[in-house]
């Protein structure tokens, strides 16, 4: 079975407010074997993450490391997805930050997902999901890919690659 993971990368605080770009990384796994990676760049606090994701994804079941990327850029997936959180986000604080900095529809979209996260018990402790998959299938996929930590390997790899790429990009 093919599965992918999505995460962003490091960006300096000076990039906030649309002043810079951050990596968006999509990994591809076949069972537990890392197969490939696709890279894109998205505007920090922008609204281009979904468009960038659509250009670099493989169209397989995808685990997203949250719904927001590069600050408050966001991806609302269409199908075959698991939005994963290793902890329950503080919805009130997220809402406050969105109210303060943005005057568009992103607050409604982001908060809608955060309010509907489902807590599941994994072998590494509680995690929180929003998915269009059957919840049992989603739980089984999370358990299968939790090898070294509560973060499934596809998003853990995307995180490591994104962090390194982001640091490199910030220095160029």
TrEMBL record:
It comes from the Archaea. Belongs to the UPF0215 family. Pfam families: Endo_dU. This is UPF0215 protein Mcup_0002.
